[in-house]
Design brief:
302 residues, single chain, 4-stranded mixed β-sheet, alpha/beta, 13 strands
Amino acid sequence: MLRQKILRKIYFTTLIVFILFILSSFTLNKNISNIKVEYQTNLSSIYLLDDNNYLLEVNIVVKENIMDSIPIIINNLKWGNRHYSGLKGIIPNDTKINNMSLEDGILSIDFNSELLNVNKNLEEKVIESIVYSLLKFKEIKGVKITIDGKALLTLPQTQISLDSILTKDFGINKQVDIQTMNNIQKVTLYYYEIKDQNHYYVPITKYLNSSDDKVKIIIDNLGNNYLSSTNLMSYLNDKIKIDNYEIKNNTVTLSFNNIVDLTSEKILEEVIYTLANSILDSTDFQKVVFTMDDHLLSIKTK
């Protein structure tokens, strides 16, 4: 009798433990299924060369720390970078960073002499690709380039003069379309090119004659939709237009007409990106505001 009671007690105790285990497992699994795993990827842009001698913008993965990211940027700009179909790096593979520092927004970067061991027609584009790629980091306001400790103030083959501190004012993919020395304006216009069904942003620094303000020049040029004699296109077209714009307190406000095309988030993102970057790269304005029917769409700042 006593033995049966003991066995019965053991049985019920084991049953209770088993039930509690099942319940706890269910709760644990439920909690695990509700846990969201987030992956943080740091992206930045670099400029690679296409077959038409244009520098195109592509995204790469970088480090969280900016000084750890700069060698990654430079390595991805080298000739050996063939990760993107139809695009290639422009810097010689033997290029090395001797040292670098960042102080008050100015990146000082010292290369070995291999940096400019390129064809004459690519010499200026090497500087363009480096400057525009590095200035994608908001912490960098200007780039000071030296070669083995000596300031690079003149390109050796083309004899093009360089400022001691380079900014986007240096330009990229330069084109000259002037008929007179009067009213010469410089603007950087963001177009796009399609390669292997991928869209790539292509900034073009254009020198032209105009007495208009730069915002109007940018809107008019991008509104042409297609850059003559090239395969570059604009996201602005006959259906996507700017009704008007206002300049006030260092801010440009652009108003779209009410169009169905802008209901697409992708189209809206691309139109805003090209317009905002064209204005911010070409002028001293600090902010671009986009509206449609008096409704705020987006705000972009330098």
